[in-house]
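Input/output pair, single chain:
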Amino acid sequence: MKLSTLLSISQLSLGSQEKLSLASSTPSRDDLIHLGANTEKTERMLAFLAQGSARVVFYGMECYPKQFYHLENPPFRLMYTNGLPNQAERMLMVCGTRYPDALASQSSYEFALEAGANEVTLVTSNSRGIDRNCLYALKDSNRAAVVLCDCGLAAKRITNNALLRSFCTISAYEPDEQALSFRCLSRNVLSAALAEACVVMQAPSKSGAMHCATCALDLGKDVYVHSTGTRCGEVNAGSRSLVDMGAETIDGYADVAIRQNWPATVRIQAGSLYRFGPSCYSLGHA
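Output:
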């Protein structure tokens, strides 16, 4: 089937299974326009994909992430860069506030270094704060991450972020769609679905990290809270509430590894990492 046909079908207000059934009926261009497809949008998506920086996968294809099939209505179309994750990879979501304190920043950096060193792929977002600290650690150690985006891959929020070029980025949105609140929430659902468990580093009561934790719990995933998120203060109010509700507290990746039965043969020396800017670190770990 033509790529333009699948891109047109992806715009329709139908469930993914309905879109798949429609695709199997080989509809004509006029049929799709009658159903609501926008030819200009299709052409913009084709032009973006023709640049070669991103690829696309559709619901029902072999490489479509199997974890999304368990969702009530998974996205029919996903655009991505740097290859989709291997279905057998161990994947762990890490999330937290956009405005962490120094201890949480350092702890998230250390956590990501150790998880990556033990061949665990972190699932995170393109947001600043805890998520970005994890990505800096993984870039510095040349390890993998999957970044679920809250906008299209052609948005400046993505293209101007050089850090993301090292990782797999996935977007369920059209290339030029901008970040909006409902897209952030939808992104969180996909992140929770892709990972086997969720670690909340530090989170206020009203935050995207708390929504990530809720999504993970709704999907039957384990949720852990890092000990740095259990201290006093408003920035930790949400993560403390998760502990009050029964979430386990962990001090580092090794604690997660024990509970998930994952390897933890490589340890990172805590307290040896210091951040001086967006691209300058002291990596005195052994």
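The first strand starts at residue 55 and ends at 58. The chain has eleven helices and eleven strands.
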